[in-house]
Structures are given as structure tokens and as C-alpha cells.
Design goal:
The structure holds two protein chains of two kinds.
Chain A (H helix, E strand, L loop, with lengths): L10 H5 L1 H17 L7 H28 L20 H7 L4 H34 L7 H13 L2 H11 L6 H9 L14 H26 L4 H9 L4 H12 L1 H16 L3 H7 L10 H10 L4 H32 L7
Helix pairs in contact in A: 3-15, 4-15, 5-9, 5-12, 6-9, 7-13, 9-12, 12-15, 14-15
Chain B lengths: L4 H28 L4 H5 L12 H9 L2 H32 L7 H9 L4 H19 L7 H25 L3 H9 L4 H12 L1 H17 L2 H6 L7 H4 L2 H4 L5 H21 L1 H12 L2
Chain lengths: ~350, ~280
């Protein structure tokens, strides 16, 4: 299953080896008719994109690695080349779990991992449930699909500020429902400070990301031929067996990318905690992006901040590589879909 | 095929729950924007004591919202135009040519999603500040710096979506144009682009939304004169008294353009997304 029923449906031959070969032959023919430097045409076409990505992403990362071995404190912001070289001292500070900075970083990492697992798991579960329940046509299905996408389409700051309002202790909707209407608690809990802030963070994150899972899985389900379900139904397979034996295996390629993207977005999420809590994130919801941001821009110690960022990137690289390795092994075992 | 009863019941129950989860915050936003101030200062009210449009008039005075709005429109539109233009050329190259390094493309796109924004925020901040000092072209605190930054955010995914669209256009069209003597550029502009227009529009909306909604870099790279909505909207909360009805009205106003665009184009969006993502 390489592509979908959408306009891209015809892209399938291009990604098969034979199709690619003939496309190349045509490309060569095109180049003969084209400009004076036929070989460089594709590179010229890609050049602006490459230059921009290099300038804004790769160069800063290299600079960031350079910054991380400097004692780049507030005194050197406008004259950064004068910052003294300190070797791996920033890294030692960050990794020393006995020191206060190292301990805070480790705590922040633990909070972020827990937040990511919970948030991605719930977002995927809601998206999957929604997609499966919306698979069969019924009246109002199109309306529901559009409605469910609204949280994803809202600008993140508008969405999170709205949740900040809902989570207000005295004037918010959440406490009004829980305390005044359902009487689940005698006193009004705080949601944006203290331990509950972790719950608030997960709720807002799931609210914003599950529509994306729904979007991808709905599109993925459209590629599953209905004949498969019909044949399974004739064989007497019920809903549960159809889900287990048709839907989930067919969605494997989509899920592989979806879960990875959700993981990376959620793990790196800065907007939700920053907008929900302001600059001072509560201890229980001290996500790593905000943690690095705060310790960089409050103390103006960019060297240390960069060291933590580089460590974060290494962590994500290892996790992503492990994930791709494990999932690709699984994919080649279930042969036939391996090329997707 | 008959459906078992429990499945129908489950569907109604679960979909109702999801609908409530989705709608209640949006309902609270919309109704609170129409509430008088005393309604949002006491316990939450599901129904406003009376409806008023005053918050929608007041939002422009409490903070310079029109100024932020103009900045957001300029920055997002410029980032969108640049991003789409650059993406069209790159996607054309990837879709129509075979060259060394072509296979790296999708790996690169996916890996850009991996970089935490915070990783290049600090260096970029320093680079912009120092480049400004060096050349006199202000990048830090200016809209130009934001436009350059934002266009690279939407670029990888825009290219990825457009490659999917371009791949779906039959190569016979290219060949016909080339027989008529059209070079690569004319083929792109006269044959490919018109055929891929829905995809281009979807990518444009995506690039606009990306720039419109970005918070992290906006909060660091802007000054008062170049402040965008992402930062400006927080201005209501830093006052001693939070005018929640105005905050909700402002949130509603800044959401309408992008939500409308997204929902109108969701079909193209899904098509482009899956064209790239499922490959």
C-alpha cells in the first residue's frame, strides 16, 4: 500500500523501481530539451530550499554545538566570540545528577517522558477510536469529521489561552463543573499550579493533537479495500476480528510515521506549557523545552542552555533511530508491506 | 452488512463524548467573548447574563491588537509567498528528475521534525543579533528575521506535499510540452502548476497557518514594533486584571481566518498529507 485513493494515487508506479526508471529516462529526455546545464537543473531547483534550510537549521545547530563548549554568559551576548572556551564543563554540569542543575534536568526529562507517553497514547487512542467509528457512512459523518478538526486548526495560542481560562480556579469552567455542578470535591482545586498542572497539560495537549491522529488514520482507512471487510464478514469475522486482522495491519505504515511525528511534536512541545503557565512552569509540569528556555533566558547562560539542547537532540536521535530500527524489523517480518 | 447493536450504541456514546470534549472549550470561548465583564469575574456561567459585543470593540484598545494583527498578516503572508515559491521549484526537481541524493529527501524532511525548536533558538538569536550589528540589517526584532525563520519551518512539509501532487500529474503532459519546445521552467509554469493548483493552495494555507501560530521564536525574535499576535495576545493577561471576555473575543478574532481557511481546504490538505506521508 504505497499511496491513497487521492490525486496521489498515480504516484504509486513512480515509487516502484520500474516506474522510477522510466521516469528517469523521461527526465533525461526533458533535460536534453532543457537548459544549457542539464545535469545541474535538479540541483538548481533545490538550491534555494537547501540554502534556507542550511542557514536557519543546520548552521544554528553547528553554532549551538560550538556555544555549548563556551562559557557564554550574559557578559558575552553582544561579543560572543570573546566567550572563554570551557570544554565539556557545561555538559558535566548538565549530567551531574548530584548538582542542582543536573538534578533539575533529570526531573524535567522524567516529566517530559511521562507527559509524552501519556499524551501520545491518549491522542492516538482517541484518533483511532474516532477514525474507526467514523468509517461507515452515516448521517452527519462529514459534519463530525470537520468539527473534530477544529482544535487542530485553531492557532495554538488561541486554543491554549482558552484552556487557561477554563482552568482558572475561581472563574473557570472546569471547577464550576467539578465542584459546583457535580460536587466531586469540597474545595476548588488549583489546576495551573501544583501537582494538578501535569493533568492540565496532558488534557490540553491531547485536545490539540488527537485531531491530527484522526486526520491521518481516517485517510489511512480510506486505502483499505471494502472487499476485505465484506470477505471477512462472509467468513463470519465480527467487528473485533476485523479490527485486529484487517484494520490494524493495514494501518501499520500510517501508524509508523504518525506515532513518530506525534512523539517528536509532543516531546518538543514548548507552546502548550509556555502559554498555559507563563514563564514559570510548575515543578510537576516542567517540560524540557520550557526548562531549557527558562534557564537560558532568565540566567542568560546560553552556553549551558546550548549544552542541554545538544543533549536533548542526542536523546531524540537515539530514540528515533531505535524506533525506526524496531518498527522496520517488524515491517519486513510481515512481508509484502515492507516497501511502504 | 448488519451491525451489532452494541456497536451502534458504542458509536453514539463515544462520538458524543468526543463531540463534547471538542465543542465545550470552543463554546466557552465563543460565549465568553459575548459576556459583560462581571460575568467572567465571578463563577463560570454557561449562559451569559446578557449578550454584548463590547469585548469585540474593547480588544483593540486594551492592547494594540490592530498593530499585532497587521504584523501577523505581513509576516505570515510574506513567509507563505516565499515558502510556496521555493517549495514549488524544489518539489519539481524531486518529482521530475532523478539525481544523486534524491533518496535522502524524505529522510531529511522527517529529520527536520526531530529538531527541538529550542536547539536552534539560542544560536539563531545570537546569529541574528550579531549579524545585525555586523551588517546594519536588523534581523533580530524585525519582521524580516521572522519571515526567514518561518518560511523554513513550513518548507520541508510543503515540498513533501507538493511532490505528492506533482507525482500524480501524468508525465505525458510534460512530454507534450517539451515536444512543443518548452524548457523545464516553462513546463513547470504552464503545465504542472495549473494542474497542481489545489495542492499549491493547500500548501499555501499550511505555510500561512504555520507562521500565524508560531510562538517560541516570536517571543524571542520580536520587539514591540514587530510583535505578532502569538505574543501580543498574552498582553491581556499581564495586566493586573485579566479581562477574560476580551481575551476570548481576541482569541476568536485571530482564529477565524486560519480556521476558515483550513476547514475550507481540509480535503486538499488530507490528500497532500497522505500523498507524502504514506509513501
Amino acid at each position: 500500500m504505497a499511496t491513497v485513493t487521492t490525486p496521489a494515487g498515480e504516484a504509486a508506479p513512480a515509487s516502484s523501481p520500474a516506474g522510477r526508471g522510466s521516469a528517469g529516462a523521461r527526465g533525461r529526455a526533458g533535460r536534453r530539451a532543457g537548459g544549457p546545464w542539464p545535469r545541474v537543473t535538479p540541483y538548481l531547483l533545490l538550491l534555494p530550499a537547501l540554502v534556507l534550510e542550511l542557514a536557519v537549521h543546520l548552521v544554528p545547530i553547528v553554532v549551538g554545538i560550538w556555544m555549548s563548549v563556551k562559557s557564554l554568559t550574559q557578559f558575552f551576548i553582544s561579543n560572543w566570540s570573546a566567550a572563554p572556551y570551557v570544554g565539556l564543563r557545561n555538559y558535566r554540569t548538565a549530567l551531574n545528577v548530584d548538582g542542582p542543575a543536573g538534578r533539575d534536568l533529570l526531573h524535567s526529562l522524567a516529566v517530559t517522558v511521562a507527559f509524552t507517553l501519556l499524551s501520545v497514547g491518549l491522542a492516538w487512542l482517541l484518533g483511532m477510536t474516532g477514525a474507526v467509528l467514523l468509517q461507515r457512512p452515516f448521517r452527519g459523518r462529514g459534519l463530525l469529521r470537520t468539527l473534530f478538526l477544529a482544535p487542530y486548526a485553531l492557532p495554538v495560542y488561541a486554543a491554549v489561552i482558552t484552556w487557561t481560562f477554563l482552568f482558572q480556579r475561581d472563574t473557570g469552567l472546569v471547577n464550576h463543573v467539578l465542584v459546583d455542578q457535580l460536587h466531586l470535591s469540597a474545595d476548588r482545586p488549583f489546576w495551573l499550579i501544583g501537582g494538578n498542572s501535569f493533568v492540565a497539560l496532558v488534557v490540553v495537549s491531547v485536545w490539540r493533537t488527537w485531531p491530527f491522529a484522526l486526520l491521518c488514520l481516517t485517510a489511512g482507512l480510506q486505502t483499505v479495500p471494502t472487499e476485505l471487510y465484506e470477505a471477512a464478514a462472509i467468513d463470519g469475522a465480527g467487528f473485533g476480528r476485523q479490527l485486529r486482522n484487517i484494520t490494524l495491519p493495514m494501518l501499520r505504515p500510517v501508524n509508523r510515521v504518525l506515532v513518530l511525528v506525534l512523539f517528536l511534536w509532543t516531546f518538543n512541545d514548548f507552546n502548550t506549557p509556555y502559554l498555559l503557565f507563563g514563564r514559570a512552569a510548575p515543578h510537576a509540569a516542567d517540560l524540557i523545552s520550557v526548562h531549557i528556555y527558562q534557564s537560558s533566558f532568565i540566567t542568560w547562560n546560553f552556553g549551558f542552555g546550548s549544552a542541554m539542547s545538544v543533549l536533548l537532540l542526542l536523546f531524540l536521535l537515539v530514540v528515533t533511530a531505535a524506533y525506526l530500527l524496531v518498527t522496520s524489523r517488524g515491517a519486513s517480518e510481515s512481508a509484502g508491506r515492507g516497501d511502504a | 452488512m448488519p451491525e451489532p447493536r452494541w456497536l451502534r450504541v458504542t458509536r453514539v456514546v463515544v462520538l458524543s463524548g468526543l463531540t463534547l470534549f471538542t465543542v465545550v472549550p470552543i463554546y466557552a470561548m465563543a460565549t465568553s467573548a459575548l459576556k459583560p465583564l462581571q460575568d467572567v469575574q465571578g463563577p463560570f456561567r454557561w449562559i451569559p447574563s446578557h449578550l454584548t459585543l463590547r469585548p469585540f470593540a474593547d480588544i483593540w484598545r486594551t492592547v494594540p491588537l490592530a498593530h499585532y494583527f497587521a504584523n501577523s498578516v505581513i509576516v505570515s503572508a510574506a513567509a507563505m509567498l516565499c515558502s510556496v515559491t521555493v517549495a514549488i521549484f524544489a518539489a519539481y526537481g524531486v518529482s521530475r528528475y532523478r539525481f544523486r541524493g534524491r533518496g535522502l529527501f524524505s529522510v531529511t524532511v522527517l529529520s527536520t521534525q526531530m529538531f527541538p525548536g529550542i536547539l536552534f533558538l539560542l544560536p539563531l538569536f545570537l546569529i541574528y543579533v550579531n549579524l545585525g550589528n555586523l551588517t546594519g540589517v536588523p534581523l533580530y526584532g524585525s519582521r524580516t528575521g521572522l519571515v526567514i525563520t518561518y518560511l523554513t519551518f513550513s518548507l520541508p512539509f510543503s515540498i513533501w506535499m507538493l511532490v505528492g501532487y506533482f507525482d500524480s500529474i501524468p508525465r505525458g503532459l510534460d512530454e507534450a510540452a517539451q515536444v512543443d519546445g518548452a524548457g523545464p521552467l516553462r513546463t513547470l509554469l504552464q503545465v504542472i502548476l495549473p494542474a497542481a493548483l489545489p495542492g499549491v493552495v493547500a500548501v499555501a494555507v499550511y505555510a500561512f497557518m504555520t507562521a500565524w501560530g508560531e510562538v517560541l521564536f516570536a517571543s524571542v525574535l520580536t520587539s514591540e514594533s514587530s510583535r505578532t499576535l502569538a505574543v501580543g495576545l498574552q498582553g491581556y493577561s499581564t495586566q493586573n486584571d485579566v479581562y477574560w471576555n476580551q481575551v476570548m473575543a481576541a482569541s476568536l478574532v485571530v482564529s477565524v481566518p486560519v480556521v476558515a481557511g483550513f476547514l475550507l481546504l481540509q480535503r486538499q490538505f488530507v490528500a497532500g498529507l497522505t500523498a507524502g506521508a504514506v509513501k
